[in-house]
Structures are given as structure tokens and as C-alpha cells.
């Protein structure tokens, strides 16, 4: 995942990898069997128990004020598309699914399963606060059709990470 001739190679101070995933407490064979069942006529996807970043609930990325960071993001989820944003920061999209793009500044990105983004983020010159990196799963595919879906709460579909400040 390194392109030494990439057009943004000298535009950042450090590179990070960020994986997004959905986490189910049930095993996938059982989830798939219910998903493709005649008892699930709407095609409702299994509702994840949690979402993870870098396979954890408490991932942090240390940054220094004013420096720019290159994040390679991939959604490794089985089903869940996710919205991703960094509180108080804009992101500049520079690559989507392996294709370099013209820089596009955004406040949020929508990452579908198996999709990849590369973004540049410049840390604010504010050491008085940490800034959460937040994901929220797109719930549009989670039609509630009892008894297929267990009751899950929205709080299990949010991940909040701290963008740590170091001097």
C-alpha cells in the first residue's frame, strides 16, 4: 500500500492505516443462513453488535499540531457501510479505490464495504482539546423484521476515537 511515486508523497508528515469493520457476536455461517432465508423477504442485513476501527473499540492516533497526516482507510465490514468524520477537522480526499484523484475537501466520507479512501488531515493548532474520529453505520439496510433481528441499540453502532495531541 505504498506508492513511492504517488502525487501526494511529499504532502504529509506521517502515514496511518485505518480499518473499519462490523463486529457480530454470532458466527457468520448462521448470520448468512438467516440473511438469505425465505423468512427474510426484504433482504434485511444482519445488525452488527459493534463497529471497530483497527479491530478495536479504543484506537488512538497521535498527531502534532499543524502537521499533516495521510490516512489510508478501508472498510473491511461484512455488510455495514459507514460514515466517517473527524470532529472540528476537514479531510481532503486524494485517492478512492486505488485511483489518485484531484484533492476534494469534505467534512465526512461514506465508506461502503470493501471500499478504500486515502485522505489528508492537517491537525489543528489547538492543544486544548482532543478531537474524536467518529463512525456511524448506515442503518438503511437494517430493516427491523422480528424475529430475524435482535434488538440492538444505536449506541452500539458508534465508535469514537481520540485524535491525541502531542507537542
Key terms:
disordered C terminus, Immunoglobulin-like, 167 residues, mainly beta, five-stranded mixed beta sheet, elongated
Give a written overview of the molecule:
- This protein has 167 residues and is mainly β.
- The chain has one domain: Cupredoxins -  blue copper proteins (Immunoglobulin-like, Sandwich), CATH 2.60.40.420.
- Helices cover 5% and strands 42% of the residues.
- The strands form 2 sheets. A 6-stranded mixed sheet has the order 2-1-4-9-6-7, with no helix packed on it. A 5-stranded mixed sheet has the order 3-11-10-5-8, with no helix packed on it.
- The chain is elongated and about 55 Å long.
- It starts with 13 loop residues before the first strand and ends with a strand.
Task: Produce the secondary structure layout.
Layout: E1 14-23, H1 28-35, E2 50-53, E3 60-63, E4 68-75, E5 82-86, E6 91-96, E7 99-106, E8 109-111, E9 116-122, E10 131-137, E11 158-165
Parallel strand pairs: 1-4, 3-11
Antiparallel strand pairs: 1-2, 4-9, 5-8, 5-10, 6-7, 6-9, 10-11
CATH topology: Immunoglobulin-like
Q: Indicate how many domains the architecture comprises.
A: 1
Average residue pLDDT: 84
How far apart lie the N and C ends? 29 Å
Shape: elongated
The CATH architecture classification is Sandwich
Instruction: Give the helix tally.
Output: 1
Proportion of residues in helical segments: under 10%
The count of DSSP E runs of length 2 or more, i.e. the number of strands, is 11
Low-confidence stretches: 145-167
Order of helices and strands: EHEEEEEEEEEE
Assigned CATH superfamily: Cupredoxins -  blue copper proteins
Bin the strand percentage.
Answer: 35-45%
Task: State the CATH class.
Answer: Mainly Beta
For the biggest sheet, the summary is: 6 strands, mixed
Radius of gyration: 18 Å
Structural class: mainly beta
Amino acid at each position: 500500500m505504498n506508492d513511492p511515486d504517488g502525487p501526494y508523497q511529499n504532502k504529509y508528515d506521517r502515514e496511518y492505516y485505518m480499518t473499519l469493520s462490523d463486529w457480530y457476536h454470532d458466527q457468520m455461517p448462521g448470520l448468512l443462513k438467516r440473511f438469505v432465508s425465505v423468512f427474510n423477504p426484504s433482504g434485511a442485513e444482519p445488525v452488527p453488535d459493534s463497529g471497530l476501527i483497527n479491530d478495536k473499540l479504543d484506537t488512538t492516533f497521535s498527531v502534532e499540531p499543524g502537521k499533516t497526516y495521510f490516512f489510508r482507510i478501508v472498510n473491511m465490514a461484512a455488510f455495514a457501510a459507514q460514515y466517517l468524520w473527524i470532529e472540528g477537522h476537514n479531510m481532503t480526499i486524494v485517492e478512492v479505490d486505488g485511483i489518485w484523484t484531484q484533492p476534494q475537501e469534505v467534512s465526512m466520507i461514506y465508506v461502503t464495504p470493501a471500499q478504500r479512501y486515502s485522505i489528508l488531515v492537517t491537525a489543528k493548532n489547538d492543544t486544548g482539546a482532543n478531537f474524536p474520529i467518529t463512525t456511524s453505520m448506515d442503518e438503511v439496510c437494517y430493516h427491523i423484521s422480528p424475529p430475524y433481528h435482535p434488538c440492538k441499540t444505536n449506541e452500539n453502532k458508534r465508535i469514537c476515537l481520540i485524535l491525541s495531541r502531542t507537542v
